[in-house]
Design goal:
InterPro entries: YqgF, YqgF/RNaseH-like_dom_sf. This protein is α/β, with parallel strands linked by helices. It has one domain: Nucleotidyltransferase, domain 5, CATH 3.30.420. It is built from 5 helices and 6 strands, in the order E-H-E-E-E-H-E-H-E-H-H. The chain has a 6-stranded mixed sheet with strand order 1-6-5-2-3-4. The longest helix is centred in the last third of the chain and has 25 residues. The two termini are 28 Å apart.
């Protein structure tokens, strides 16, 4: 795995979108790491929106399993690499270091993205919508919480893509 600064990471992604056919475009996986679990999202081929993929439990002994899972997802979705939420650096940095040491993701690129104030606003809106859904559909609290966890990784990807849309892709 190779670290790229966020601007370089997204410039490379945009450069790839200009020269590749739609089915060859690289996507990005969003990774939101928490103490007990991590959630994953994937961008669409145009890298304009993010969709939730799954929630994976975190255990100290499963780094090789996770590296294999990430390698499979990178292949399946033709992903360039990861945008990793860095709002919890004491959790994120050791995890990424362990993942790099496995050597199972040699071509994957990664960058960190942190903007807690905007993410908090997005979380507020998402929680408001989920509360509305839970009250209107009478969903149990654990189902609502699972939905919230699945969308955590989409926030990590959605913000950079929203910022990217503010700039002209032809420059």
């Amino acid at each position: 795995m190779k670290y790229k600064k966020p601007l370089k990471f997204f410039k490379d992604l945009i450069k790839n979108a200009k020269v590749k056919k739609p089915y060859q475009r690289l996507r990005v996986l969003g990774l939101h790491i928490r103490e007990d679990y991590m959630s994953l999202a994937v961008s669409n081929p145009e890298n304009t929106i993010a969709l939730p993929l799954c929630i994976l439990p975190r255990k100290e002994n499963d780094i090789n399993y996770l590296a294999d899972k990430f390698r499979t997802l990178i292949t399946e979705y033709n992903a360039m690499g990861f945008v990793v939420n860095n709002n919890y650096p004491t959790l994120v940095s050791p995890f990424v270091d362990q993942l790099k040491k496995t050597g199972k993701l040699p071509r994957a690129k990664y960058t960190y993205w942190e903007d807690s104030s905007i993410l908090q606003q997005m979380d507020f809106v998402l929680k408001h919508h989920l509360r509305f859904i839970r009250e209107q559909l009478n969903l149990p609290v654990d189902v609502s919480n699972e939905i919230l966890q699945k969308f955590a990784a989409t926030n990590v990807l959605q913000l950079p893509f929203t910022v990217d849309l503010l700039f002209d892709r032809d420059t």
